[in-house]
Structure formats: C-alpha cells, structure tokens
Amino acid sequence: MTTKELTEQGNTQKERENLLEVKNLKTYYPIHGGFFKRVVGNVKAVDDISFTIKKGETMGLVGESGCGKSTTGRTILRLIKPTGGQIIFDGEDITRISGTKLRKARQDFQMVFQDPYASLNPMQMVGDIISEPIKNFERRDKKELVEYVKSLLVRVGLPEAAYYKYAHEFSGGQRQRIGIARALALNPKLIIADEPVSALDVSVQSQVLNLLKDLQEEFGLTYLFIAHDLSVVKHMSDTIGVMYLGNLVEVASNKDLYSEPLHPYTQALISAIPEPDPKLRKERIVLQGDVPSPANPPTGCPFHTRCPMAQEICSQEKPPLKEVRPGHHVACVLY
Amino acid sequence: MTTNTAYGAVKRPEKSSSPWAIARRKFLRNKLAMISTVFLGIVILLSLLAPVLAPYLSPIPDITKVNIGKMSIPPNDEYLLGTDKSGRDVMTRLLYGGRISLLVGASATAIVVILGTIVGSVAGFFGGAVDSLLMRFTDFVLNFPFLVFVIVLNTILYGIVDGLWVLILVIGLLSWGGVARIVRSKVLSERENEYVLAAISIGTPPAKIIIKHLLPNVLSTIIVQATLLFASLIVAETGLSYLGFGVPEETPSWGNMLAFANEPDVLQGKPWMWMPPALAVTFTILSINFIGEGLKDALNPKSQR
Ligand SMILES: Nc1ncnc2c1ncn2[C@@H]1O[C@H](COP(=O)(O)OP(=O)(O)OP(=O)(O)O)[C@@H](O)[C@H]1O
Ligand code: SF4
Ligand SMILES: [Mg+2]
C-alpha cells in the first residue's frame, strides 16, 4: 500500500502509467435464425474501439441507449467473450486468459451494475453478498471478516445492521451502495461503473456520485464511468469518450470536450444539455432520424445517416479515430 | 456519513427478514394449507406407526395371510373396516398400504426432483452445446416406452433389488424430464439477472453460482413442482398397481387394494373393501395439492403477506 502511494505521488500528472489499454476491441452478438438455429448475422454491439485509461483517472463513456456501452464494459471485464482486439490490464493481456487464471485476475477489476434491483441476489443476506468475493479467494477468520464487511458497509454510508438484512428492504440508492461495497471488497484497481445512478432518483444521484469520488481518492481507484447523460459524466471524468453505434467517435479531456466538441454527434449531444444561463445558451442541434440497427450498420461513417455535415465521402469510407490536437481524438472526415 | 454507528454493537435481529422467513409466515397464516399439512402429517404418522398400531386396531394384524374362515366380513365392532375376500383385515392393510404408497410417491419424487434439477440447472446455466445435448437426452427419456423399461429393469435387477424399488426406479428414472424442462427455463430467465454476472465478476466458480445463486431463486418453483409430483406419483402407483404393473401383489398398497377389489360384485355390494383406500388416496392427494397451492402463494414475493 505504502509503496503504491509513493509511486503514485512520484509520478507527475502527465506521465502516469496506463492501467487499461483497449485495442481494436470488437464484440458481436450472433443472430440465430432459420430451422437449425444457424448464425445468420451479427449485432455489432462494439465495433473496433480503442482507448486507454491512466492509473487513478476516470474515463467517462457516453452514448445513447443501445450504442454498446454496457457491452464494452462487460467485454473489458471478460464477462462477455470479445470477438476481436486486445484488452491489456495493468501490463497483462487478459483478452484470451480463461479458467482459474481469469478467475484470479478478476480480483483486480470489478463492476458496479446498472440495475440496483437485479444486481443483488434477493435470497442472499447483504453481509453474505459482500463477503462472497473475499471468500472466493481467501480463508479469513469469520469474526474478522464480519468486522471487515461491516466496516465496508459503514464506509459506503449504510448502518452496520444492514449486514443482517436482505436487498428487498433497501431503496435503490442504498442497494447501489451495497453493490459498491461488493465491488470494493477485494480492493480492486479498476472499477467499471455501468450507469450506476441512471436508475436512481435525481435527489440521491449526486450522493452516490460523491461517494464514488471519495472512494476513488481513498482507495486509489481507476474508473471507467458509463453514462448516457453528458452532465453526469462531466461531474466525474478526467477524459471522456463518446460512443455511437458501437464506435468511439471522439475522445478528449473533460475540458476540451465541453469547450470544443469536434465531432458533429458530440456537438449535438452538448447542445442538448440544458443551459441555465441564457447568454451562454446556444442553438440546439436536433438530430434527424433514428439510430440505425447495429445488426445492419451503415457503411462508411456510422453517423452519416443523421449527420448535418455529411458529405459524399462519408458514406464510403469509415474515418478512423485520430489525434487531431494533443490528447483530442476524433473520427470524422472534417478533421 | 460514518458517525452514527457504534462498532460491534449490532447483533443479528430476532425477526428474520429473509425471503424464506417471510414465506414461512405467509404459509402459517394460510388455513387450508395448514389443515392439509396437519392431515397429511397424521396420514404419514399412521402409516409409519402401522406395525405398532395394527395389533390394537385389529384381531388379525397380519397383512398377507389368507384366512379362509373370515372372508368378506362387513365392518363391525371387531373388524373396524371389515375384511377382504381373502379374509385379511382391511384396516391393517390400509395402514400398511399407506406406507407403501407414500414411500413410492416420496422416493420417486425425490429421484425425479434431484435428476430434473441437476439436468435442468446445468443445461440452463451453461447453455449452448451442453444445453442442446442435455435437452435432446431429456426428450429421449420423456418418449421412452414405459413398459419396455419396466421389463428390462425388472430382468436386470431380478433378485438384486426388490420389486417395489424397481417400480420406484422406473418411475423416477423416466419422469424427471418435465422437471428438468421447467428448471431449465426458470434458470435461463434467472440467469439474465445482473446478480449472476456480478457473481462471475467477483470470481465465484460456476458450480457455486448454480448452487448458491440460481438454485435458491428457482427453489420455490422446484418445491411447488415437487408437491404436484408427489400427488401425481401416488396416483401413478395406484394406477399401475391397479393395472397389475405396479407394486408386487403380495405387498399391500392403496393401489393394490383397489386392484384386488376390482370385481363387479365387490364394487357394487362390498364398498368397505375399496372405499377406504379410494378415500385415503383422494384425501391425501387433495391435501398435498392444497399444500402445494399454499407454498406457491407463500413463495410468490408478489402476493400479499
Ligand atoms: N445478449 C445480447 N444478445 C444480442 N444482442 C444484444 C445482447 N445484449 C445487448 N445486445 C444488443 O447490443 C447493442 C448494445 O447493447 P448494450 O447493452 O451494450 O447498450 P448500452 O449502450 O449499454 O445501452 P443502455 O444505455 O440501454 O444500457 C444493443 O443493440 C443491444 O440490443
Ligand atoms: S465523417 Fe461525415 S458523416 Fe461522419 S461525422 Fe464526420 S461529417 Fe458527419
Ligand atoms: Mg447498458
């Protein structure tokens, strides 16, 4: 622990190590059809995305419902089989590991799930839910374990008595805290938070977000923070990636993305954020049409069917994500 | 945020809020189910105690011996339920018969539930090729001709296992398909819940996920299925014995007693020979069904407390 803190302090902000590198990641869900349930096509939920997250930082991932955010998170954590590409976690390629090796590796990366109701087993006592990850990897003295789990409960803002209760006795926000305690139990390096507050009342959203921020500082966590709402991500992230139809269309620092969005899709998303100050208010860009199906994505730029700036070439060639300014990546022919 | 909690002071609460405890409280409040439970309990107790009780209830507590002088006596003070056409006491045979019928029903149910649960949960959890293979096997077993299996197993096990257990094995080994299918489909839908994904991500091994996460959540379905099966397998025993394929003739069971009474003059003129086993089967099955309904209601989290 102390050496970790030292090295973290020793690194200046700029030259922090990468904790996670995702290279050309693809995840396709096969579509079965016909008489013999043959594979007749693919839902290209994640179609060739690359990004890195530095130790101790938070990357936000935003995009509309169905654009492949959960699939990205789950694939990185090896909960879904990747179709192609590479996942490098803490210097180790985890794309193809399996069995016990994968199970062991899981100690270092955890997930906070989207649905606070479905993500907790209704038949398990809260104390057992949070102890389970520890029991999976070590034998600990029972009393000591109970104390540890209770201290985790207190840390996430729940009373110790929650240990003996069941999930159905808690509100959405409290359940999400239980889920956070479970993810924290093994002292992971990376936590992927998959829309951790989108199912919660607005009044409790910021409490849970602040808890996640406090925990990040205290435990030196790295986050991949998924949301469909840019305002939530702004509050949380160092860098932000914008996803559209299984593709990453823009990646930039928090500041750059909001002050100078480059991709037409990002510009539309940002123009849709309500701006209380009328002087700063810009004209809202309203996108035409619907998101195409990931089972049958358009050729060329995935956004060309709705892009207000689309040109002829856009439907022919898929523009790669490239660094057009220092630290600012965008996939669009305009740059 | 962490101020108002005192360390170590919190103990386990008295009244558990576990889903099982809630279900138990709901069940205890269901009158019909409780009456049925008591009734079934008495039937089981009487059957178990048959060797102890029979001598007090009948002058001839023997179940197999033929008594030429005492054939077809209607119920009276001495023979409470009369005697059958071989001169055996109906009360005695009814008590002993209950043992066999309940034993066949319970053992076959146990085999069916265990096999069906294992096959169904493994197929549902792993999916893919494992699933197709297991489900094809299930279909094969479901379509297997029953009588062929009885004859084959009887031949193989002749002299090794007694006839009663052959019957139990046959029923058990051929009837688990339905349970396997129900458990599979329940596991398939349960598996979609994020808590299963969460279990994988915290490093819980597959076997433990099935046992600790999926089975507790499909157990209510299994319990309800088991009660229905128990009832229907008692009927199956009765039916098979009645047709002559069931429990060996010399062993009394409710089915055998009915089979033995299957003659026009008995059916019309000597109701004491068949009414007792018929009523015993009917009420036992009714009570099991009411218990099943009660369990279904108690275990359904959506129903009112
Ligand atoms: N198990 C699956 N089988 C087939 N298709 C799937 C499966 N899971 C997701 N998809 C499809 O993949 C695409 C991406 O889904 P994903 O859940 O990753 O999106 P998302 O960005 O997380 O959306 P949301 O904001 O609704 O959570 C969607 O079109 C979805 O319908
Ligand atoms: S590549 Fe063309 S269609 Fe795609 S975002 Fe840029 S301008 Fe629009
Ligand atoms: Mg999602």
Automatic annotation (TrEMBL), chain A:
Entry's family note: Belongs to the ABC transporter superfamily.
PROSITE patterns in alphabetical order: ABC_TRANSPORTER_1, ABC_TRANSPORTER_2
Domain ABC transporter: 20-270
Keyword field contains Transport: yes
Classification lineage: Bacteria, Bacillati, Bacillota, Bacilli, Bacillales
Protein name: Peptide/nickel transport system ATP-binding protein
Family annotation (SMART domains): AAA
InterPro entries on file: AAA+_ATPase, ABC_transp_ATP-bind, ABC_transporter-like_ATP-bd, ABC_transporter-like_CS, Oligopep_ABC_C, P-loop_NTPase
Pfam families assigned to the protein according to its UniProt record, in alphabetical order: ABC_tran, oligo_HPY
SUPFAM superfamilies listed in its UniProt record: P-loop containing nucleoside triphosphate hydrolases
Presence of keyword Translocase: no
Organism: Bhargavaea beijingensis
Entry keywords, A to Z: ATP-binding, Nucleotide-binding, Transport
GO molecular function: ATP binding; ATP hydrolysis activity
Source domain of life: Bacteria
Any Gene Ontology biological process: peptide transport
PANTHER family in the record: ABC TRANSPORTER, ATP-BINDING PROTEIN, TRANSPORT ATP-BINDING PROTEIN
Gene3D superfamilies per UniProt: P-loop containing nucleotide triphosphate hydrolases
UniProtKB/TrEMBL annotation, chain B:
Signal peptide: none
Major location (coarse): membrane
GO biological process, one term: transmembrane transport
Residue ranges of domain ABC transmembrane type-1 in the record: 98-292
Alphabetized UniProt keyword annotations: Cell membrane, Membrane, Transmembrane, Transmembrane helix, Transport
Residues spanning the membrane: 32-54, 100-128, 140-158, 164-183, 214-236, 272-292
InterPro entries to which the protein is assigned, alphabetical: BP-dependent_transpt_permease (IPR050366), MetI-like (IPR000515), MetI-like_sf (IPR035906), Oligopeptide_permease_AppC (IPR053523), OppC_N (IPR025966)
Cellular component per GO, a single term: plasma membrane
Subcellular compartments: Cell membrane
Domain of life, per lineage: Bacteria
PANTHER family: D,D-DIPEPTIDE TRANSPORT SYSTEM PERMEASE PROTEIN DDPC-RELATED, OLIGOPEPTIDE TRANSPORT SYSTEM PERMEASE PROTEIN APPC
Protein name in the entry: ABC transporter permease
Native species: Bhargavaea beijingensis
